[in-house]
């Protein structure tokens, strides 16, 4: 349940960050990947559910959709050993993503890295500049995330900031978790974080206006 809260909270927080429109205003486009990313796709995309489990990735939580508009991430499968080896050090091992993104049949839709902010500055991986993102429950300090979604015709879609974190071509309506049923408790978590985030943004705007006057 703790990880379910985490992934839902991430979605809610990312959706409410400044610069993110009600409908996701991603300008990212699918591109031809460099050789290393293409090799990672070959390595992970066709994994069976048994192979995913054998490699230490455990699906946790429901399909994560953009709570404020189009797009989704899918279902997160976390490799705790890789996560603990990389995240606290602020590192991203290019050969070992610590998260896989799956559909309802455990087909791999993409790969993800998360790394703590340890003062390393903007991170770069596979030619992409990864922006720091605000903390969320489970990773309260600012940190970095890189999403790589597998797209048709061998292309990939990079998510390097809050505006590009979700794949606009995915929908949890088409990628249901637990038969597409989201419990009232899970829905409540999303609404709670959305409300808290919205109030926080209004508070910042009010304080800024007061100082300006």
| Main β sheet profile | 7 strands, antiparallel
Low-confidence stretches: 1-10, 12-25, 176-213
The global form is globular
| H/I helix tally | 5
Average pLDDT taken over every residue = 77
Q: Distance between termini?
A: 45 Å
Order of helices and strands: HHHEEHEEEEEEEH
Structural category: alpha+beta
Determine the fraction of residues in helical runs and give it as a percent range: 25-40%
How would you describe this protein?
The protein is an alpha+beta fold. Helix content is 31%, strand content 23%. It has one domain (2-192). The protein contains 5 helices and 9 strands. The protein starts with a helix and ends with a helix. The model is unreliable at 1-10, 12-25 and 176-213 (pLDDT under 50).
Short précis:
With 213 residues, this protein is of the alpha+beta class. The chain has helices at residues 2-16, 35-44, 49-54, 80-86, 184-212; strands at 58-65, 72-78, 99-102, 108-116, 123-125, 128-130, 132-133, 143-150, 156-159. The chain is built from five helices and nine strands, in the order H-H-H-E-E-H-E-E-E-E-E-E-E-H.
Strand-helix topology:
Blueprint: H1 2-16, H2 35-44, H3 49-54, E1 58-65, E2 72-78, H4 80-86, E3 99-102, E4 108-116, E5 123-125, E6 128-130, E7 132-133, E8 143-150, E9 156-159, H5 184-212
Antiparallel strand pairs: 1-2, 2-3, 3-4, 4-8, 5-6, 7-8, 8-9
Fill in the keyword field for this structure.
213 residues; alpha+beta; two-stranded antiparallel sheet; disordered N terminus; disordered C terminus
């Amino acid at each position: 349940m703790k990880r379910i809260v985490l992934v839902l909270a991430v979605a809610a927080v990312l959706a409410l960050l400044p610069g993110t429109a009600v409908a996701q205003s991603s300008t990212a486009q699918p591109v031809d990947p460099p050789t290393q990313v293409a090799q990672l796709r070959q390595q992970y995309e066709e994994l069976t559910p048994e192979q995913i489990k054998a490699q230490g990735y455990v699906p946790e939580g429901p399909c994560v959709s953009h709570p404020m508009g189009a797009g989704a991430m899918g279902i997160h499968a976390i490799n705790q050993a890789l996560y603990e080896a990389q995240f606290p050090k602020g590192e991203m091992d290019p050969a070992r993503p610590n998260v896989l993104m799956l559909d309802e049949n455990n087909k791999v839709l993409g790969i993800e890295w998360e790394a703590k902010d340890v003062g390393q500055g903007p991170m770069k991986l596979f030619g992409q500049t990864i922006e720091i993102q605000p903390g969320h429950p489970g990773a309260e300090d600012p940190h970095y995330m890189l999403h790589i979604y597998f797209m048709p015709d061998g292309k990939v879609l990079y998510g390097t900031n809050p505006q590009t974190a979700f794949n606009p071509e995915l929908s949890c309506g088409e990628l249901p978790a637990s038969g597409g049923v989201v419990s009232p408790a899970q829905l409540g978590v999303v609404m709670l974080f959305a409300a808290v985030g919205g109030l926080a943004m209004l508070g910042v705007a009010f304080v800024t206006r007061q100082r300006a006057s």
